[in-house]
Amino acid sequence: EPHSPVPTPRAIQPITLKNIVIGAGEPKIIVSTTASHSEAVKDFVQQQAKRPEPAVIELRLDQLDNSDDVAAMVQLTRELYAILPDKLLLVTFRTKAEGGNQAIDDQRYAALYHQLLTHGQMDLLDIEMYRGTPQVEQLIALAHQQGVHVILSSHDFQQTPSQAEIISRLRQQQAMGADILKIAAMPHDAGDVLRMMSATWEMAQRYAQRPLLTMSMGGMGALSRLAGELTGSALTFGMAGSASAPGQLDAGDLSATLAMLHSSLSSEKPA
Ligand SMILES: O=C1C[C@@](O)(C(=O)O)C[C@@H](O)[C@@H]1O
What we know:
By secondary structure, the protein is of the alpha/beta class. It has helices at residues 38-50, 70-82, 106-119, 133-145, 163-175, 190-206, 222-226, 228-231, 251-266, and strands spanning 15-17, 20-22, 28-32, 54-60, 88-92, 124-128, 149-156, 180-185, 212-216, 235-239, 249-250. The chain has one domain: Alpha-Beta Barrel (TIM Barrel). The mean pLDDT is 95.
């Protein structure tokens, strides 16, 4: 026998919520809201609730004009949760510091998330790992008390960190108790995209017990948004109409390509 690859078993434990398996099979598609008014957000989510592509809908609170009206945001999460009986609702306030639409200080960020977790409804909450250690630790504990799964996230819209730095952040997120480990970074060349994919694979093979969500942004990064089943990224963002970040592919095209790659990957039988 010439070359028989020995597959290394991954230690990633899939998460199953509402029959959606995160961390096995095809990467699951997340579609984000980008509207600035609650009514438009609700219309969009009604439409997406009927679409087959997204498994997860991300509510981007920082895109809303009235995101400082905490009671209205709490109410909005409850309404969206009710129209998504078989998809997952991810709630995200992406801060300006990490590429989002609105600046918010760590205290107000923590206060908003505290109210959302206490009075709102969601399956998943995106918490930026660098929003202040005590705040982040308290929010993770509260989320888990409320039965909400936590995505700890880190974004770099300027450049792509070294492979060691990408892995170190993902491991830190895991150590902090994240349920899903996430990093997004901007590439300047193909090497940066390949490094993100390679860091994802090394993390998945060696260190991860939790599902990963990684991507290179911008047009150059598209391959990283398609390659998750190979590299070990369990989720991927696609767009419906308008992108919530540069480089997102249309959810329909994304879904077709993920299916094509899945059939190739599952025909691969060890010799
Ligand atoms: O952080 C992320 C990833 C993202 O920035 C992307 O590149 O697809 C899109 C955002 O909506 C999401 O919160």
